[in-house]
Amino acid sequence: MNAGKPLGFGAATTVADDGGERADHTLGLLDAVEQEDAVSQRRLAKELGVALGLANALIKRCATKGLIKVKQAPAGRYAYYLTPKGFAEKARLTAKYLRDSLSFFRRAREETAELMNQARARGWRRIALAGAGELAEIASLAAHDVDISIAGIVDARDNRAKLAGLRIVADAAALGPIDGIMITDVRTPHDAYARCVAAFGEDRVLAPRLLRLGKNGNGGRR
Fold first, then answer.
1. Which H or E element spans position 73?
2. Cβ neighbours of residue 203 closer than 8 Å, sequence gap 6 or more
3. Residue 76 carries which DSSP code?
4. What CATH architecture applies to the domain 2-82?
5. Cβ atoms 131, 64 nearer than 8 A
6. Which residue in 214, 147, 144, 194 sits closest to 181, CA to CA?
7. Looking at the whole model, is its pTM more than 0.85?
8. Strand, coil or helix: what is 20?
9. 68-73 and 77-82: which strand pairing?
């Protein structure tokens, strides 16, 4: 059972997938309702990384689909329960998430390893990664298989000091001399690619094909 704020079902969302909203948001909400002793819409919004209005809309949709049950609790609060249908949907989304995650990891590992070999063939010895996140972590693993050192990760939006043991800096100049840079920004890859090309030149920028940069990024092939 989870006690939270009353449901003001007025908000709408434009984020969509085959179920009407992002599957990771739905999974996160169902997981929070199952795991937390007490959860409010504000808490859900923070955990999911979405606006309060979107959290409100997600709760409404899950209730409408019969995934959660809403009951009034003392002090004008509301309690949220997972229904049997909600448990089944959570299991389905969890399985899909794991399949998708494994598929992403395998493809990212293969493509970043290919790019590391390309970089090594060019005589590169020291490169940087543009974008902190899962793809950067996977690229750092691929670097272990070749004689290439990763100087660090360039990401002005990330406040962490390190990721996977690598320094995170706002400007590549802070890393010292590098031979090239690999795009690992999955949120705004086109912008990252444009910045890197402007700073280093096209011949010194590599990008995995999974980022779908098309002609601009050429899938990491130069």
1. strand 68-73
2. 222
3. T
4. Orthogonal Bundle (1.10)
5. no
6. 194
7. no
8. coil
9. antiparallel
User: By three-state DSSP, how is residue 208 classified?
Assistant: coil
In CATH terms, 104-220 corresponds, of 3.40.50.720, 3.40.50.10610, 3.30.300.20, 3.40.50.150, to 3.40.50.720
For residue range 18-69, list pLDDT tens digits in order.
Answer: 444 688 889 888 988 887 756 777 888 888 888 888 888 998 999 999 999 9
Q: In terms of DSSP bridges, do strands 166-169 and 77-82 run parallel, antiparallel, or are they unpaired?
A: unpaired
pLDDT of residue 221: 44
Separation CA 133–CA 105 (nearest Å) = 12
Q: What is the pLDDT of residue 4?
A: 43
The Cα 68–Cα 61 span in angstroms is: 9
CA distances from 20 to 12, 13, 34, 60, 61 (A): 11, 9, 21, 12, 8
User: Do the domains 2-82 and 104-220 sit in the same CATH topology, yes or no?
Assistant: no
> In this predicted model, what pLDDT tens digit does every residue of 159-200 receive, in sequence order?
999 999 999 999 999 999 999 999 999 989 999 999 999 999
Segment among 68-72, 73-77, 93-97 with least mean pLDDT: 73-77
Domain range list for the chain? 2-82, 104-220
> Which residues are CB-neighbours of 147 under 8 A, at least 6 positions away?
120, 125
Q: What is the largest CA-CA distance in the chain?
A: 69
Residue 172 · residue 154 · CB < 8 Å: yes
Q: In whole angstroms, give the CA distance from residue 141 to residue 130.
A: 15
Please list the alpha-helical segments (H only) found in 49-157.
Answer: 52-64, 84-121, 134-143
